[in-house]
Design goal:
43% helix; Rossmann fold; 12% strand; alpha/beta; 6-stranded parallel sheet
């Protein structure tokens, strides 16, 4: 029963669940009727009770549970002479005491004992209960609302009698707690169980020993010193992941997880390197057996290929991401998927993992709304970073280059495995090959904090600040060249690796200002822009609300224009999609020129007013 009524009013949910679990190969144990029914069933040689139960749907069972013994006699046991005879010796009060199995400790114990003895299959116990059991007419089986907060005196008295609680009338009226004596069997049992379980309060175990992460140069030198080499961030990620898997200490703890499309993400070489986990090995010859990177399943495989199920793959990720607590063994899981298939499809499971203090990487591949031509709504992601920003212990990054990605993965691994910080990382990668610059060491801190100056513009009279990240960085760099070559406007290009990190740090600084701890909002974002000049144009492959997260921390008086991919996705080429959403180089140039023109007009107006004021002053003199 749910709050509003029976879940299957015209059916029997126990039968439905039994068929589902039995069909899936499980052993099913049903705990349906309490011990009081045993004597009745022992005398029921004609199976009248069994037949009556089989013909009773859940809606009727709820009605029976919501009423007393007299009602149950009239409504249920008076259906047939055989049923009437079976309970003729029982009073209405005794009929009211006929419990369901899930409320009988003897039956519950028997069900678990039977489950524990079974071998060869997983077991499910289906226990039949009453909603609001023991609350009598005020709550048992009733469709009451959540506004039913307490029982009146008569209801409390009835509750006491129902469970034979050793409380006086005065204690019942005061709703006093009942606590058995310290030396009673109940308290001795409870104390012993709490000691066996490790204490009196739930505790998240954090005893997993730290795991050393190999030096960044040993796993990602190719990315840090790319020197213009063309590659996608997906390609860079797979290469760095392969290097981590080869490390003798960390390698065995890495858990690559994919729901599908491992080949699309360039992970086929990992099939040969570490194999795909299969508990029974590979019982067939794969279609591509003659190729070097064939589909290799083996008992010792390390990749988890979970079938086309994001929910299943994320559940495996959560298990590995929380193993430091549940098993005292720290793992480093990477779940790689189309970015659209993460927070939008299984966001609730990501929240559940966050609540369990998961540690690991979620890697959103082919990220952004315009990167995967021809797929339309199915694959185009314009909001995952916005959703990720709502989860407190999720650190979300949208790197544009391999070096940025390498620094983020290295930092995250050290935070989670060496420092044992309860956080996880969402990192988006793209499938577009771009020229990757080398990443200087002094830019690493900016990458992790959310922004750094990628390309300073030349010395020109007019200047703009361009923000780019992820898939749109190439458009931003192209726009900077056009602005300088064709419009005489210098463009400083900033790589914004994480609007989420910038916004959170700014909010933390703003809180200190509100509390009077510091005189100004001294954010990393504000400090980076303090020495710059000119309007700011931020372009992203996500919705405009993402860059809008930092608007509150833009230095006073600076114009801030955001370009994003709001709206529905489309099926077309990258160039056409970026033109449609107005996040391509031409749109960035147009926005920049427009805002610079406004500034020029305002300056001319100011100069004219000052000239007129001077003229009036001279005339008055």
């Amino acid at each position: 029963q749910r709050l509003d009524g029976p879940v299957r009013g015209n059916g029997r949910i126990v039968d439905e669940l039994e068929s589902l679990f039995a069909g899936a190969g499980w052993n099913v144990v049903k705990c349906l009727w309490g011990s009081e029914w045993d004597a009745l069933m022992a005398h029921d040689h004609g199976h009248a009770i069994t037949q009556a139960f089989a013909q009773t749907v859940d809606g009727e069972f709820q009605t029976l549970s919501a009423n007393d013994g007299a009602f149950n006699r009239r409504t249920f046991f008076n259906k047939t002479p055989a049923l009437q005879a079976l309970v003729a010796h029982l009073t209405d009060e005794q009929i009211d005491q006929l419990r369901r199995g899930g409320h009988d400790p003897v039956k519950i114990h028997a069900a678990f004992a039977k489950a524990a003895q079974h071998r060869g299959q997983p077991t499910v116990v289906l226990a039949k209960t009453m909603k609001g059991y023991g609350m009598g007419s005020v709550g048992q089986g009733r469709m009451t609302t959540h506004q039913q907060k307490k029982l009146d005196r008569d209801d409390l008295m009835a509750f006491r009698e129902r469970f034979q609680l050793p409380l006086t009338d005065a204690e019942v009226t005061q709703a006093a707690f009942f606590k058995p004596a310290a030396d009673s069997p109940e308290m001795r049992y409870l104390q012993a169980r709490r000691q066996a379980l490790g204490g009196y309060l739930p505790l998240r175990e954090r005893t997993a020993p730290p795991v050393a992460v190999p030096p960044l140069e040993s796993t990602a030198a190719f990315a840090l010193h790319a020197d213009g080499k063309a590659m996608s961030t997906t390609m860079a990620f797979v290469r760095q992941l392969g290097a981590l898997l080869k490390d003798s200490v960390l390698g065995p703890r890495v858990v690559p997880i994919v729901a599908d499309e491992a080949r699309t993400f360039g992970m086929a070489n990992l099939f040969r390197q570490v194999g795909i986990y299969a508990p029974f090995g590979q019982l067939y010859q794969p279609e591509d057996a003659e190729s070097m990177l064939f589909y290799k399943e083996e008992v010792s495989g390390q990749i988890l290929e979970e079938g086309i199920s994001e929910a299943g793959a994320l559940s495996s990720w959560t298990a590995a991401a929380t193993s430091y607590s549940t098993h005292g063994l720290a793992m480093l899981p990477f779940f790689i998927y189309y970015s659209m298939f993460g927070f939008q499809r299984v966001g609730d499971l990501i929240w559940a993992a966050a609540d369990q203090r998961a540690r690991g990487f979620l890697v959103g591949a082919t990220s952004g709304r315009t990167t995967l031509g021809g797929e339309g709504l199915q694959h185009q992601d314009g909001s995952s970073h916005l959703v990720a920003s709502t989860i407190p212990n999720c650190r979300a990054y949208d790197p544009a280059f391999a070096g940025e990605l390498a620094v983020i993965i290295d930092h995250g691994a050290r935070q989670m495995l060496e420092a044992q910080v309860d956080e996880f990382y969402y990192v988006t990668v793209t499938n577009e090959n771009v020229a990757n610059p080398s990443l200087p060491a002094d830019a690493h801190a900016g990458v992790l904090r959310g922004m750094y100056l990628l390309r300073p513009g030349p010395r020109l009279p007019r200047r703009v600040q361009l923000f780019g990240s992820g898939a749109i960085m190439g458009e931003v760099l192209q726009a900077a060249e056009i602005l300088e070559r064709e419009h005489g406007v210098a463009a400083d290009v900033w790589s914004i690796t994480s609007y989420t990190e910038l916004a959170r740090e700014g909010q933390a600084q703003e809180r200190l200002w509100r509390q009077g701890t510091q005189p100004t909002v001294d954010s990393w974002f504000g400090r980076q822009l303090a020495a710059s000049s000119g309007p700011i144009i931020a372009a992203t492959d996500y919705v405009r609300a993402l860059p809008e997260m930092v608007r509150a921390f833009v230095p006073d008086g600076r114009r801030f224009v955001t370009l994003g991919t709001d709206g529905f996705g489309r099926s077309d080429s990258r160039a056409a999609l970026r033109a449609h959403f107005e996040v391509n180089a031409q749109a960035i140039v147009q926005a920049s020129v427009r805002v610079v023109h406004e500034i020029i007009v305002h300056e001319a107006d100011d100069n004219r007013r000052r000239h007129d004021d001077d003229a009036l002053s001279m005339a008055s003199i």
